[in-house]
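Retro notes, structure queue

What went well: the backlog is down to a handful. What didn't: a couple of records were mislabeled last round, so from now on we paste the full input next to the output in the thread. Example, using Sec-independent protein translocase protein TatB from Streptomyces shenzhenensis:
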Amino acid sequence: MFNDIGPLELVTIIVLAVLVFGPDKLPKVIQDVMRTVRKIREFSESAKQDIRDELGPEFKDFEFEDLNPKTFIRKQLDNDELGLKEIRNGFDLKKEMAEVTDAVHGRESEAPSASSSSSSSSASGGSGGRVDMTKKPEEPRKDDRPPFDADAT
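Corresponding output:
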């Protein structure tokens, strides 16, 4: 519960408690606080048990910690019933970016199913689907204007 309290902070809390309550009332205050914490824990556990009983036998292995989104996602990724690891491993970001840059520059990307694209890529430079990021793009000519779109204005 208090995992992030350091030793200096703990000493500060103890000194403040002694100053506020006094050394003779401090043990009684600590007992009252501990009794209250125990009652809250008991109430919480009984409420959880009541909810489990009301849900029925289908939810006998239900844990309230699973309602935390981080815990839920971590559990689902460990199960890997959805095949997320296969999807993540099958995604090639470099290839996707090369296809996007080829499409932007007007070149055909190298597709494994199309034989015409492999012949056009070898004719366009033979880079094997790779884009040379060190070359500057061609400067557009001044007389080249984008097509006029009446709906866009």
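Agreed that this is the format going forward. Reviewer comment attached to the example: The first helix runs from residue 7 to 21.
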